[in-house]
Amino acid sequence: MQRLTDSSPCDCATPCWRKPLPALVTAAAALGASFSANALTIVPTFGAGVGATAQATINDVVAGYSALFDDPVTVTIKFENMTGGLGQSSTYFYPIDYADFMARLRADATSAADSTAMSSVPTGTNPVASATDPTHIDVTRAQAVAVGLGGLFTPDGVTDWDSVISFNFGIINPTRTGTVDPAKYDLQSIAQHEINEVLGTVSNVPGSTIRPIDLFRYSAPGVRSFAAATDAAYLSIDGGVTNLAGYNHSGSGDTGDFDSALVRVQNAFGTPGASTVQLGVEITALDVVGFTQAVPEPGAYLLMLAGLGVVGGLARRRSA
Amino acid sequence: MRVPGAAERNTDAASRADADRRAVRPGRAAGRLASHAVLVAFSSWCLAAGDAAQQDQAMTAAAPSRFRADELGLRLSRQNGNAAYAPRVVSLPGTGDATLEADGRKLPFRFESRDRVALLNELYRIRFFDLPTQYSTRPSARLSDDGSVDTIRRQLSDANVNSVCVSIAAFERCVHYGSEAPLELDRLAQRVFAQAEVLAGGR
Fold first, then answer.
1. How far apart are CA A108 and CA A288, in angstroms?
2. Predicted complex ipTM
């Protein structure tokens, strides 16, 4: 369970990936596919109004998730156009027995982040005191399957999908290639934001049943927050000691999204003109709520090193 | 994505808590995953959803039936989930000094007691106080191959969220909705915004 994109939670204001060209993302995806046969698979369906350029960007984003996660999960998503807002998603959530899910989540913990996160969650009872239904936890199908749960209703991916993601393409730059309108929003960032939520980073605050991400929502060290939209909460996987990202409590926008302190993919509010590709904290979030980061196999490392050697050799020959 | 007043937060939270406490009896299907546990959980949740709706309706009684006209206020907002557009807010306070906030400006206009009461009557007509307080989550029924119907939950994230809040003295009730709107309420809200623009622009 190593990070492929960075080595620490990436909260830098400067994007950690600077403009990864689609080809680079595709290459990463291909490399990821070589890492494991169990890659998370997102099957996209495109509705009318999603142009070829946008489809290519979404396909690159989708491939990036297969490179990043090792879970044998297939998620169906329909992408479509809408005329209001910026981006939104509609996703199925399943009420699962809390104890059963948590036992599986613990058994699925393999990364350092997982260990830290699980040690902050007591075994047995639901630690979120304000959850009015502590015996259940709401999870996406992808999360459930990722930790080994089965028997869930599975949309056919033709007439019904795990999620429907809608974009307001009227105010979106569909690609980072060529001229980018600084007044418009970046499709890659918005697609990542929505897919993160579709997979399982969306909070249920304020609600009655927690979602896995709500186990890591704090208002102070040792104090979990599952309260109202105005609560100044933050994401932490070590019991509230380290603040990985502040949650939005501005009074508008989703309370499960991040605040605007830094430019991040999971912020509640988009930043026009910004090519935001900061997946560090978002990937940590997905990791601790059930997904397994891909671990390159030795052969893949050798292949990658060989590739780097070829690139280095070419550069050396060119400079000579 | 919502701006509930303190009173509404308290009463709604208590209401939901009550409903869930009464309705959800753990589908503790002794663990070993699979369809049994999941189906039991589905059933429990369906019961919870039904009771929550009843509990929501019970809140109607909380609205005062007699009060001073200047204790009646309304607030409507239309906000996109992302900052693509600034929020637009119409405030119709009991003083009659109404405002329209749009495009970074706050435009004053008058909205008298009789107009606010007329609006309250329109809200009563569409059963505003019986509506759920939020529309971001809804049940979704699915027909399985074996002829059974599974009901699961559908969550709408990052959707436009519009709010209509009515306050009567200390009582406050808000309904928040997005693209899956209660149509009559949304039509009414759009009409109020249009009216506010005319009134604020005609000064």
1. 10
2. 0.74
